[in-house]
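Hi P.,

Sorry for the delay on this. The queue was packed all week, but I finally got your sequence through. Input first:
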Amino acid sequence: MALELNQNNFDEIIKSEKPVLVDFWAEWCGPCRMVGPIVEELATDYQDKAVVGKVNVDNNSEISMKYGIRNIPTLLIFKNGEVVDKQVGVVPKEVLAGKSDAQL
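Then the structure:
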């Protein structure tokens, strides 16, 4: 299951030694509901290789503003606390898995 990221744990988690995939989403966002199950599958698939988390943009606007999130869903991949890849919008699971694999 994807971790729920917020103001209290975000900075610590993105500094993980493992790559970190973060899904920026909102409950009212239709495309986010399409990507959500894919993110959950990736959390299971990459359980031992990467960290997968979700940021609700409505509840964590400071994080969203810090990373310039203007459209959702936006998925960022962090490595050692730095953004190394970005995907905006709905894409197939294979695309996100490929981006994640590239950071392992």
